[in-house]
TrEMBL record:
A Pfam family recorded for this sequence: Glyoxalase
Protein name: VOC family protein
InterPro entries assigned: Glyas_Bleomycin-R_OHBP_Dase, Glyas_Fos-R_dOase_dom
CDD domains found in the cross-reference section: VOC
Organism of derivation: Macrococcus equipercicus
Boundaries of every Glyoxalase/fosfomycin resistance/dioxygenase domain copy: 10-119
Length: 123
């Protein structure tokens, strides 16, 4: 199953301090709004989202319709297909979307250790 672009979403205490830290590691900001206390940074194929006050913990994030350059991946499955496959395999989401919806959506699962995994589709 192609899960698309992967990123780590980090809950941070200070968005500006975190951004400056990751810049020193060679990351460049590629999207975001610091006034809303979030941004996405990238170094090579590694993508990290920095979020202040938005989440309770760190999150593994998959964007099925995006490639590693945040370009649309036409061959990727719709997020609803991925959720249906996971449900068929016995993995129940802890947060889901309306099944009758189309376009942008997201759902959340947890691994056996309680780590949050989010699947997002912006298209």
């Amino acid at each position: 199953m192609n899960l698309g672009n992967f990123s780590l979403s980090l809950e941070v205490k200070d968005i500006n301090a975190s951004l400056e830290f990751y810049k020193k590691l060679g990351f460049k900001q590629i999207m975001g709004d610091l006034s809303q206390k979030w941004c996405v940074v990238k170094n090579g194929e590694c993508t990290i989202g920095l979020f202040q006050g938005m989440f309770d913990s760190h999150i593994l994030t998959f964007n099925p319709k995006w490639d590693t350059d945040f370009q649309e991946n036409q061959d990727a499955p719709d997020i609803r297909e991925i959720e249906a496959k996971l449900r068929a395999d016995g993995i129940e989401p802890v947060k889901s979307f309306e099944y009758e919806s189309t376009g942008p959506a997201h759902f959340v699962i947890e691994d056996p250790d309680g780590h949050t995994i989010m699947f997002e589709q912006y298209l």
